[in-house]
Structure to design on (164 residues):
């Protein structure tokens, strides 16, 4: 392999290794160029008994070669969360911005696919938002899933927050 062609190949290999798959539970090709939809299972590190499934797009080699922009996946994602067992809520951030529970690189340097958890005290529910973070230009593409806690047997490690 010539040195100049080895550099892009090496960079692509590093990108694919850096993306990581978390706990991938499904994947399928959605066109003939090798583009894939990947589905990952996410466990919230501070809330047991809730599982989220995150679907995102992963560009194939032919798409990268044909369209350029070799080192980046699109910002598209979708999330769905549900109760998978007894819910125990640990020490979570209760302010309006919530806290990040997952992130994964979608480009060599600047783009991240992320998930934030926000507690809505007025409806007694957990909201999970998947979105893309790009240092240069943010993305309006996002997805939201809600897990209701109302009427369920939920254990709060620090006591249930009260609404004022």
């Amino acid at each position: 392999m010539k040195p100049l062609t080895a550099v892009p190949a090496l960079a692509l290999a590093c990108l694919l290794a850096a993306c990581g798959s978390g706990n991938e539970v499904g994947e399928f090709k959605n066109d003939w160029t090798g583009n894939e939809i990947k589905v990952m299972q996410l466990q919230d590190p501070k809330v047991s008994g809730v599982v989220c499934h995150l679907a995102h797009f992963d560009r194939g080699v032919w798409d990268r070669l044909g369209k350029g922009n070799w080192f980046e996946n699109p910002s598209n994602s979708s999330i769905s969360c549900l109760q998978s067992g007894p819910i125990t809520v640990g020490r979570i951030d209760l302010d309006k911005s919530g806290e990040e529970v997952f992130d994964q690189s979608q480009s060599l340097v600047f783009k991240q696919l992320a998930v934030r958890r926000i507690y809505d005290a007025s409806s007694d529910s957990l909201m999970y938002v998947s979105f893309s973070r790009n240092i240069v230009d943010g993305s309006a593409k996002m997805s939201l899933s809600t897990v209701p806690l109302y009427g369920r047997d939920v254990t709060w490690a620090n006591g249930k927050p009260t609404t004022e």
About this structure: The chain has one domain: 3-156. DSSP finds two helices and nine strands in the chain. Residues 122 and 164 are 9 Å apart (CA to CA). The two ends are 66 Å apart (CA to CA).
